[in-house]
Design brief:
About 70% of the residues lie in helices and about 0% in strands. It is mainly α.
Length: about 180
């Protein structure tokens, strides 16, 4: 929040570019800021997971492909991608599962001071606010539970379907 609403606008003034406060706006710029932040936050774990998956590929296999005249694109398409596919598949399945429960780190930006505008609120953030922020009553707990169970009933077939389709793409490459 400090960087988006204070540091970047001040930096823009110093270099002669007008950079608005990114979290106090509404519309697409605010949505873009939230999406960019979530990509930035998830980048570290993604790099660790993908680099670990690729480091498990035997060097001898890559060297053999290079000796046979394999181009870098073919090496990626026929060696790296199939051997790292289980990690890619895991990220995609978890991403499908997160569609309804992810709160997009909105609480990180808005905390207890204010509520995110309706344009960017997610279902996960709405449920969190319903229970945590508003000192929930029993009727709110039952309502939130009903929403959660309904979303679970929708999410389970989507996740299983995505997993089934992604398993169909897997050629079962092992090393």
């Amino acid at each position: 929040t400090y960087i988006a609403d204070r540091v970047l606008p001040e930096f823009g003034e110093k270099i002669g570019i007008e950079i608005p406060k990114l979290l106090t706006q509404s519309g697409y710029k605010l949505l873009f800021t939230i999406i960019l932040f979530n990509i930035f936050v998830g980048f570290g774990s993604g790099v660790l997971m993908y680099s670990n998956a690729m480091s498990r590929i035997p060097d001898s296999l890559v060297e053999y492909a290079q000796l046979e005249g394999c181009t870098p694109f073919k090496e990626f398409w026929h060696i790296t991608l199939p051997l790292a596919y289980p990690t890619i598949e895991t990220f995609l399945v978890v991403g499908v599962a997160n569609i309804f429960i992810d709160q997009a780190n909105l609480y990180t930006f808005y905390m207890d001071n204010e509520t995110a505008c309706a344009e960017i609120q997610t279902i996960g953030y709405y449920l969190y606010l319903m229970i945590q922020k508003n000192s929930a009553t029993r009727s709110q707990y039952t309502y939130a539970s009903a929403i959660g169970l309904t979303l679970t009933a929708v999410t389970i077939p989507l996740v299983l379907g995505a997993r089934y389709l992604l398993d169909k793409l897997d050629k079962g490459a092992e090393f």
